[in-house]
Design goal:
Length: 267
Amino acid sequence: MKIGFFDSGVGGITVLYEALKMLPNEDYLYYADTLNVPYGPKPKDEVKQYVLNAIEFIAQQGVKAIVIACNTATSVAIDDLRSKFDIPIIGMEPAVKPAFEKNKDVTKRILVTATALTLKEDKLQNLITKLDNEHIVDLLSLSGLVQFSEGFEFSEEKVLPYLQEQLSKFDLSNYETIVLGCTHFSFYKDMFRKVLPSNTNIIDGNIGTVRNLKRTLEEMNSTNEGNGNIIFYNSGLRVKEKALLDNYSKLFNRLDDINILMANTRG
């Protein structure tokens, strides 16, 4: 049986990319809700219904587990999903706890970036309240990166000025760790590295989410059942057009390039 991956758009590819490395002998179904992306600016109840509809469809395809590879969808719908469906559902949240573990300098701050909806949801606010005894966490919405990635815009000429403008609100020398709290943002790690001081940690929750998936499959005794094949769906319609499949391939290639770059730098 396949593993289902869900995101509002292409951001979840950054999580699927890690799954293909950690769990290469599985088959996957990737569902992008391209008709309704972006979720961040939309009302919570509207987003929740989009997510419920999508997971209903994915569950009907005969999957053994579903990864909600979207911080926004997790924050607004994970409890409802787990109460409605019997199959394991793995959510994700901004990597705030790992950020505190990485922050070794007690004088330095943590910047959590995400979509506007994720930042205001109780799930994230409660997590920060639990961990942030010294009040060192600041928040920043970078929803423009969702728009860029959904438009397959990865040129530095377009994206870097946006990042520089948004991050100029902060004295970046005061921050030891920045959290990429939206899966779309991980497509731009190389550009974050260009803007941030060289000693700044850049982290996301992607690998942690896949580790959770791996543990879940092992507990189910349900691993190594495939060949790394992926079926793509855009809002319930199977993707067969070569141009669209090529776009997904380009995203994986970009992540390969970013991994090579980041391996030679801190973060």
